[in-house]
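Continuing the series of single-chain predictions for the mutant panel. This is the parent chain; the variants come on the following pages.
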Amino acid sequence: MHKLLIKGGRVIDPQAGEMIPADILIVEGKIAAVGPGLEPGEGAVMDVAGKLVAPGLIDMHVHFREPGFEAKETITSGSRAAARGGFTAVACMPNTNPVADNRAVISYIKARAKEAGLVKVYPIGALTRGSRGEELTEMADLKEAGAVALSDDGRPVASAAVMRRAMQYARMVGLPVISHCEEPTLSAGGVMHEGYMSTVLGLPGIPAAAEEIMVARDIILSEYTGCPLHIAHVSTAGSVRLIREAKARGVPVTAEVTPHHFTLTDRAVADYDTSTKVNPPLRTEEDVAALKEALADGTIDVIATDHAPHTLEEKDVEYQMAPFGLVGLETALGLVWTELVIPGVLSPVEAIRKLTVNPARILGLREGVIKVGADADITIIDPQLTEVVDPAAFASKGRNTPFAGRSLQGLPVATIVRGQVVYNRNLAVIA
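Parent structure:
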């Protein structure tokens, strides 16, 4: 019988909203007991004194690129990056080649994730065929195959009529719609936030309005259809205001923010580092302040990475020629701790809630909790550990990070999925 005792840590329970000293006994991949002074019996012991023991982190917005773009990332390399970043589960977007718009691709992704045997990978199905925004996918089929949500992420649905129909059908099959909010005629040709810095740098801009118009439209459609709407990577103060007002009215809307959007501003683009080229773009100091306030007051439910790896060759070009995206799985927790927890924007419990139970609830997953009988998906965090970000050490194939050389504190030191240690930085396990 496979047993593991996690001993001497402080357990974060985001559901109960508390942090208590407790041990956790894992038997055959499940949590068997939680409490003080537990004994392992015949099992192994992991000493986590001075560490925090959290439910396994969930990233509900990643791009693993397989099938079709394996040079950027594979499901195996992406899973390794997730494990190294403290994530036990991820939800991957459908912009693969072929697009994940049918049962076969969804099944392929699940099979490849099972072969990798590292973290749980939940596919997100496309909202429209080929993510072209014209014809709806077979949503019930996608759900049956294992899709946990529907999205044309990266290819916003331009037609309000198509989006309305998509939401009506998604509601019928019981899946949330995840929206990349961008009005394509306003953002066309832009490569960074439209404002003072884009003028100084001579780069075409993407106005805040391009995001906010679509946030407003999709909130209206969600209210009209009753379909749960999740707004991906919120980046502007105006979007925050619209979401806050919608929630107050009882619209079934949730939202996420990425670590790069609550950490960096458009000033990071000043040296034309293509790792700062993301969509939506890095915004202003006022926007960052609004995002932090929205995290603190609960307007923004989730922190997700939008992990988007690219090859070195793709990113090593002029700023306007480079693809959008940066890698985020391996820097996320350190950025959350350094930028939000240590300055007091969020408590450790609040931060973990946005990385565990909230994404699990939105996607209809049972993960994100530490309780007897649940899968033993656990992330061990050392709140004192500091490290300088070194892209060469990444498990991801992608190296496109704007955080190289930055010192981060509060890092994952072990990741456990179904009782198996899939990442261990330096913790002793005594058999």
